[in-house]
Amino acid sequence: MPSFDNRDLIVREDILSRARELANLITTTEEVGVYQQAEKRIQTHERVQGLIAQIKKKQKELVAFQNTFKNPAMVEKIEAEISVLQDELDGIPIVQQFQQSQVDVNYMLQSIISIIRDTVADKIEVEAAKPAEDPETCD
């Protein structure tokens, strides 16, 4: 029986072609469209971008106070500030829509992966269960 090393595994071109075709179909779904629209709105929304910038700045401060200054009191204070900023960000409707669209696209992708995995597993089990030779001729 041949053995395969993942580094040497070659996928047939027709399978790769179908995978690209499936990927292109996925990008045309309503879920991906909603995600892309929400992402564009988030990127151009001043308040959202301002909050994201503030959170990133606070996260850098947090790392400095944790690692360099070893100041637990400031770490706690900055964590609380980040939490307030994150809550404000999460409360903005377009951010909620964006987060939901991420969940929806992820669910769709996970469903597709599950269908492929289950279909392949079913086929392998059926093929493995077939007798290699006619049982009446075996001794």
Automatic annotation (TrEMBL):
One Pfam family from the record: Com_YlbF
Gene3D superfamilies in UniProt: YheA/YmcA-like
Source taxon at top rank: Bacteria
Name this polypeptide is given: RicAFT regulatory complex protein RicA family protein
Organism: Cohnella cellulosilytica
